[in-house]
Design brief:
With about 230 residues, the chain is mostly helical. Helix content is about 55%, strand content about 0%. The protein has 3 domains: about 10-60; about 100-155, 5' to 3' exonuclease, C-terminal subdomain (DNA polymerase, domain 1, Orthogonal Bundle), CATH 1.10.150; about 160-230, no CATH class.
Length: about 230
């Protein structure tokens, strides 16, 4: 066996038992029956051999665990980029004659999508004309929104059907400037409206598709259109 302290507890136990058996065989059994004592000697010897094998196996076995392979980091191109759920690409609208209010679907109003549109249709509000004539309380209950939100949708309906005013424009007029009817728009200042809309965009109070632009010239066109209607 190797010098020093045995590294396996089983080997130590085997040595102790082997020594005890050898002493018993020599002191107590040998004077009575030599044959039996030889058998006990043999058992002790087997224990010594067992202890030797256990000790050698511990020395041969590796003492350190194999190093784990480092995890490979995902390549940058494999990591999906975060998507802004509010971002949308601006596509210029096709020029077309002004539609009749009774023909414009309720979803024409910015902020009223398929879900709110379905709820409004269920209570008889399916076009822009229907929304213009609707009560804010009825709209609020149908869509489970605040009365203020319903009032803004109704106000937007008064602008969205004009050739010069898109859905995004109507939202900016109502949410950024607080103007809720054609009379108020006709009396407004283009410069003042532009400053308010720009501030609302910077704060995130009004959102428009990427690439959508406002200008004082564009706003003045809204005002001129309103003046022709009042």
């Amino acid at each position: 066996m190797s010098p020093g302290i045995l590294s396996d507890k089983r080997a130590v136990a085997a040595i102790i038992i082997g020594v005890i058996l050898a002493i018993v065989a020599y002191v107590f059994i040998r004077p009575i029956d030599r044959t039996v004592s030889y058998a006990v000697y043999g058992a002790a010897l087997l224990l010594f051999v067992y202890a030797y094998v256990m000790d050698i196996s511990d020395e041969i076995a590796p003492t350190t665990k194999p190093k784990a392979k480092p995890k490979t980091k995902p390549k940058v191109k494999d990591i999906p980029k975060p998507v802004d759920e509010h971002a949308e690409e601006y596509v210029p609208a096709v020029k077309a004659p002004a539609a009749k209010l009774s023909k414009l679907p309720i979803e024409t109003i910015e902020g009223i999508g398929g879900v709110f549109g379905k709820e409004l249709r269920a209570v008889g509000i399916s076009t822009v004309a229907d929304l213009m004539a609707a009560k804010a309380d009825k709209v609020a209950r149908a869509c489970d929104v605040s009365k203020t939100q319903a009032e803004r949708w109704i106000a937007m309906s008064k602008f969205a059907w004009l050739d010069e005013v898109s859905e995004e424009d109507a939202e900016a007029i109502v949410f950024a400037t607080g103007i809720t009817d054609l009379k108020g728009l006709a009396a407004a200042s283009a410069d003042d409206m532009y400053r308010k809309i720009k501030a609302a965009l910077d704060k995130g109070d009004v959102r428009v598709p990427s690439g959508y632009k406002f200008s004082t010239e564009k706003i003045q066109a809204w005002i001129d259109a309103a003046k022709r209607m009042v």
